[in-house]
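Researcher: Good morning. I'm working through a list of sequences from a screen, and I'd like to move beyond sequence-only analysis. For each chain I'm collecting a predicted structure so we can compare shapes side by side. This is the next one on the list. No need for commentary yet; just the structure.
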Amino acid sequence: MSHSRIRVVDLETGGNGRQDVCEVGWQDVVLGADGLWRLSGERGAILVNPGRPIAPDTMAVHHIRDADVADAPFWREVAPDVLRPEGGCLALAAHRAGFEQRYCTPRFTGDVPWICTWKCALRVWPHLPRFSNQMLRYLRSPEGLVHEVGLPAHRAMPDAYVTAHHLRDLLNEASLEQLIAWSREPGLLPRVPAGLDRGKSWERLTLDALLAFAQDRDVDVRFTAATELARRSEAPAPVEDRPVQGSLL
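Model: Good morning. Structure tokens for this chain:
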């Protein structure tokens, strides 16, 4: 297995319920001799026959038409070579990787771990207002990102290329092991995403509000609320205000 490569992947799908894959793109990130991670020249994309018509509302996003994929190979034919390249890789990565993992199953990937750049960005850059792939692109302006290579958005290779810049910078701020560990947990949200407390940091919430969020339907909200509750339970009890001079009585 290669000890210096992580493959970033991005999928476009066809909609219509099962959302079968209609394009896969990739961009490799490699570890240099200087100990820093950087993008390699290895990237590409392959159109995939989803086995059913592409939904019009999905075509309106990525502009891949039925005619474009009519003679393309099926996902089961494409996936092994893309996801298990010659020489192997340390990990696979994607932005909101849970989506890609629906299709990039262990059948195709083996036991290679995943990195979710969305979850890791929440941890490393919590001060940012938003964390979508394209918002991170313009909020951060990653060094070396060639604007035209990252276009059009919502196509597999350009999106993987943009994600790879985020991954490179994350790897150069935190260890590979740490990114994998964060990716295995739900997202740790820096601020409340919705409701009356929207936009507040979790530290500002009342105990009752936190307990309510700990029962939320959203797994990331539940996890973040539980994390804040655990933090508070471990904090030392506040010291009562006392006069500098004690009473003589």
